[in-house]
Write a structure and sequence with these properties.
By secondary structure, this protein is an alpha+beta fold. The chain has one domain: Alpha-Beta Complex (Phenol Hydroxylase P2 Protein), CATH 3.90.56. The chain is built from 3 helices and 7 strands; from the N terminus they run E-H-E-E-E-H-H-E-E-E. Strands 2-3-1-5 form a 4-stranded antiparallel β-sheet. Strands 4-7-6 form a 3-stranded antiparallel β-sheet. It starts with a strand and ends with a strand.
Length: 81
């Protein structure tokens, strides 16, 4: 099980909304963070989130059980460690 933490601020909401619609992904909260959780890899397409690059490259607050395999102008993709 992997978890990706994002600060619960309006700028990150559309990223989490896209993740919420991915297969086998749950979204929850821990303190001031929104948590994207899955037993498998997660891939979020940046264009589908409609966020600017500055928000995109600052959205991750923490990660647990995964590593970031891709985080560029196209996608944020995690994979198990």
């Amino acid at each position: 099980m992997g978890r990706l933490f994002m600060l619960d601020v309006p700028e990150n909401t559309s990223i989490v909304d896209v993740a919420r619609h991915l297969d086998d992904v749950t979204v929850g909260r821990i303190g001031p963070y929104m948590v994207i959780e899955s037993g498998d890899s997660v891939s979020i397409d940046r264009r589908s989130t409609d966020v600017r690059h500055a928000v995109w490259y600052s959205c991750v607050a923490g990660i647990e059980g995964w590593r970031i395999a891709q985080w560029d102008k196209d996608a944020l993709r995690t994979e198990p460690r």
